[in-house]
Specification:
Family: Belongs to the NSE2 family.
Subcellular location: Nucleus
Order of helices and strands: HHHHHHHHEEHEEEHH
Main location: nucleus
CATH topology of the largest domain: Four Helix Bundle (Hemerythrin (Met), subunit A)
Number of strands: 5
Shape: elongated
Pfam family, one: zf-Nse
Bound molecules: zinc ion
CATH architecture of the largest domain: Up-down Bundle
Pathway: Protein modification; protein sumoylation
Number of domains: 2
Helix content: 40-55%
Length: about 260
């Protein structure tokens, strides 16, 4: 004869604490690691202005992609954990509170409480769709763009062409290259921000002055999109274009090659 029920509903206070559980601490740890990759890339650019260091960058890109796979697996696992927790909470909420009378009912299996163990044994990150979503991943874009912008920081990439084609005039105006200056301030980019709505890039201080915390029409010529600061994210590709451009300029100034020495 059972004196103790197989399962009992969790007490409300315990349930609340239990609900705060997460597969990983909601810290900025992953972002910190991603920032380290960016720092490593900046160092590579600073130290190699000659030939494109393909093996260094490919190795780093590979590491970065495995990190992203891991991150999306953790995300998938966390989503399943949240779902299991809310299912468990839903079932527990429908249970009779534990009293002397209900205790016997639970003991005799007339009242059923959900099994905590069963709720979580099915969790598996690998079975769910956990492919990393690279569409908004700025560093991934840098890895793709680097082989091209290494040779020419103003070169147009296929995705730039797509934006430029919508504004044919501008393509003619810029002669098919990417400007490394802000279209608002006409100064070289210091903190380029790209609009997720239209792909236009502006320097952060100039953009902030222009938008004044409001939603306005995109400052780029014929764009017409309504944008506010929340539509913009740092444009890492542009940042690396500028970095490569200035590093090359500095290096050629520091060690002028034979051709610049010739004065007639
Ligand atoms: Zn725009």
């Amino acid at each position: 004869m059972n004196f103790v029920p197989d399962y009992l509903p969790l007490h409300h206070d315990v349930l609340r604490q239990f609900h705060a559980l997460s597969a990983y601490p909601k810290s900025d740890m992953l972002q910190d690691i991603r920032n380290q990759f960016e720092v490593a890339l900046v160092e590579i650019v600073n130290e190699n202005t000659g030939r494109y260091p393909a093996h260094l960058i490919n190795e780093l890109a590979q590491e970065y992609r495995s990190l992203n796979v891991l991150a999306s697996e953790i995300d998938a696992y966390d989503r399943q954990l949240q779902k299991a927790k809310s299912n468990y909470k839903l079932e527990t909420d429908q249970c009779e509170p534990i009293t002397l009378e209900s205790w016997d009912q639970y003991r005799l299996n007339r009242f059923k409480a959900p099994s905590l163990e069963q709720a979580f044994t099915k969790l598996d990150a690998k079975t769910s769709n956990s492919k990393p979503d690279a569409s908004g991943d700025q560093l991934e874009k840098v890895f793709v763009a680097l082989p091209y912008i290494w040779e020419d920081p103003t070169v147009m990439l296929p995705e730039d062409m797509a934006t430029a084609q919508q504004e044919e005039d501008e393509l003619k105006f810029s002669g098919g290259t990417i400007e490394l200056t802000c279209p608002i301030s006409f100064q070289p980019f210091k903190a380029p921000m790209i609009s997720r709505k239209c792909g236009h890039v502006f320097d952060k201080p100039a953009l902030e002055r222009f938008l004044e915390n409001q939603t306005k029409t995109c400052p780029q010529g014929a764009c017409g999109q309504h944008v506010n600061m929340k539509d913009f994210v740092p444009d890492l590709v542009m940042q690396f274009r500028c970095l490569i451009h200035t590093t090359k300029k500095q290096k050629t100034r520091a060690s002028p090659d034979a051709s610049t020495d010739v004065v007639d």
